[in-house]
Write a structure and sequence with these properties.
Radius of gyration: 23 Å
Order of helices and strands: HHHHHHHH
Oligomer: single chain
Shape: elongated
Distance between the termini: 35 Å
Length: 146
């Protein structure tokens, strides 16, 4: 993933705005319009959701949001704020960030605590046919490492 001066999302939103402005200004099938026609409905829906969420943010706010995240910081490897970087932001880092954000969203949900308490209670009270007996822990751990 390419990094931009004001963060990936800021550049994405700017490109999306330019894209929409271009569509409004052209009535013929420009390369931009042809590109839009080639985007699947599923991807259009995703773009619409991204725009709905991030479209109202100023580019500097979007920049602040992305620059504070670990994938961006990791790719910059301690460079000064105004220095350019050619290091890519790794997809696995973005995926890990996504999982972190999803976990935070789930934990902030009003029913999270009661749902987790019920899940743990059910797990504790359920009799398993696969219980590990005394003396079998070493074998069990070795089976996990194989």
């Amino acid at each position: 993933m390419k990094k931009f001066k004001h963060g990936d999302m800021g550049q994405f939103v700017r490109l999306l705005i330019d894209f929409i402005v271009n569509l409004k200004q052209t009535s013929y099938l420009s390369p931009t319009r042809i590109f839009l026609l080639e985007i699947s409905d599923e991807k259009k829906k995703i773009l619409s959701e991204i725009w709905e969420y991030f479209g109202g943010y100023h580019a500097y706010r979007l920049s602040d949001m992305t620059h504070g995240e670990f994938p961006w910081k990791k790719a910059r490897k301690g460079l000064p704020p105004q220095a350019s970087s050619t290091e890519p932001i790794l997809q696995e880092d973005m995926k890990a960030l996504g999982y972190q954000k999803l976990d935070l969203i789930e934990r902030e949900h009003p029913i999270y605590e009661s749902l987790m308490a019920k899940t743990l209670e059910d797990a504790i009270n359920t009799k398993s046919s696969n219980r590990i007996n005394k003396g079998e822990v070493g074998d069990w751990l070795n089976s996990l490492l194989d």
